[in-house]
Amino acid sequence: MREKVSVTDTGIQSSGLPRDYMEAVAEYIWNGFDAGASVINIDFDTNEIGTINSLSISDNGSGIDFNQLKETFGNFNDSIKKASFQKSSSVIKGNKGRGRFSFSAFSGKAVWKTVYQDNEGLSAYEIIITRNTKDYFDPHNRRTVTNEPTGTTVTFYDLFEVSGFSFQSEEFKSFLIREYGWFLMLNREKEFQIRINGVPVSYQQLIAESDIDTLPIRDAEGKDNYFKITFVRWSEKIGDKFFFYFLNSAQQEVFKDLTSFNNNAIGFYHSVYVESRYFDAFNPADTEQSQNLFEKTRHHSTFKALMGHLHSLLRIRQKAFVDGEAAEKLVDVYDRNGIFPKFDDEQRKRELLRVVKGMYCIEPRLFQGLNREQQRINVGLISLLLDAGKRTEIMKLMEQVVHLTDEDREQLQDVLHLK
Fold first, then answer.
1. CA atoms of 402 and 400, how far apart (whole Å)
2. Are 93 and 34 in contact (CB under 8 A)?
3. Exposed (0-12), middle (13-18) or buried (19+): which is 261, by Cβ within 10 Å?
4. Would you tell me how many other CB atoms lie within 10 Å of the CB of residue 143?
5. Which among 362, 403, 355 is positioned nearest to 379, based on CA atoms?
6. Contact of 113 with 126, CB cutoff 8 Å
């Protein structure tokens, strides 16, 4: 029997649904992971000219409980997932109740086949939603099944603006890697996968550098706590902010906390994964208790020592990134875009490039957020002061604009040859 969604079709369409097939597919992938899946399969079949004969996205999650349909498919801009949604955890991503309608970006109809388990055993049924009447959903053919794994398969019909190439293209694979690489890395011990026609999508190409270390910290009672710390710098922007992810000894994420580098614009894309038995007392399913426990833990000497080490680790890693790849990229872009003044003397140009690079390494913010004209003015002023032999004035200007540590000041003196 057809059921009514708590909003009109027009309201659904105007709510900000994905307009791109890649973002739409991402919604269904997240729905699968939200349901506890470890494997998401994107399967399609094409003919000789690339036209898609069939397309489905399936997962091995817990399925969709028929008894909760009114709280799931019946609500819009709301979701039963909100009850377990935590901004401090990556476990639940979809909590707006919109993802199921995303098929309208590339398909005329979506059919869900789901298998779930309740107190009575395993049950299966189908749900149909069409693009032109999204405010109605049709659950039907509920039945008892045996020996079928739980999970959900969404099959899409009446496809448009997509072809076999759409899902085989490097652009699509790169999108999936950017969106889910950090999450697959978070759940690597559980072997989470996204597969396209049976082939796992690898996020390894997104890793610019990584390092694993073990940190022992002795608490006030003399007990040693060990923390396995995995630092990852990504080569591109990822589908999450930059977090410390805390996992217990079963590799379950129990909490996450923003790093202090989320507001920089230098391309230092990173994630830090911290595993330890120290976090075994946290229960991810108990939101309130775990939240309170984590807030108490923040004040423990062990956790303070851990966070001090993590922040120090990121400062060192960011500085190495800025001193190397980021600074080289800045002067290369400036050179190609004609930001540097014209020089007859190549030595003067090399000196200016060296000083700009050195100043950027000390304080990247001096060169961020500037349009091309502002970049020319900024670099031109440095060039004029260098030509006039007023290197001390450059240092004074920097001290007026940003706070320089003793280490920064000593490094700047080296850059400006003031020693």
1. 6
2. yes
3. middle
4. 9
5. 355
6. yes
Token pair belonging to 301: 């000497």
Asked if residue 51 lies in contact with residue 135, where contact means CB atoms within 8 angstroms, the answer is no
CATH number of 3-200: 3.30.565.10
Q: Indicate the residue type of 198.
A: G
Of residues 34, 65, 29, the one with CA closest to residue 177: 29
CA–CA separation, 94 and 25 (whole Å): 13
Helix axes 406-415, 391-401, angle to 10 degrees: 150
The amino acid sitting at 71 is E
Asked if residues 402 and 366 have their Cβ atoms less than 8 Å apart, the reply is yes
Q: What is the pLDDT along the chain (419 residues), one digit of tens a residue?
A: 565 565 444 444 444 566 789 999 999 999 999 999 999 999 999 887 788 888 999 999 999 998 888 777 756 554 444 444 345 566 555 544 567 778 888 999 999 999 999 888 999 999 999 988 777 788 889 999 998 999 999 999 999 989 989 999 999 999 999 999 999 999 999 999 999 999 999 999 999 999 999 999 988 788 899 999 999 999 999 999 999 999 999 988 988 999 988 876 688 999 999 999 999 887 656 656 566 666 667 778 889 999 999 999 998 998 899 888 888 889 899 999 999 998 888 899 899 999 998 888 888 888 888 899 999 999 999 999 999 999 999 988 888 888 888 888 888 888 888 86
Tokens encoding 21: 């097939």
Per-domain residue ranges for the chain?
3-200, 205-302, 337-415
Q: One-letter amino acid identity for 35?
A: A
> What distance in Å separates the CA atoms of residue 139 and residue 142, rounded to the nearest whole number?
8
The tokens describing 286, both together, are 């108990």
Taking the CB of residue 18, how many other CB atoms lie within 10 A of it? Answer: 19
| Residue 360 · residue 366 · CB < 8 Å | yes
Q: Name the one residue in this structure whose structure tokens are 């699509």.
A: 172
Query: How far, in whole angstroms, is CA 337 from its chain's centroid?
Result: 31
Task: Dig out the tokens for 175 from the structure.
Answer: 């999108």
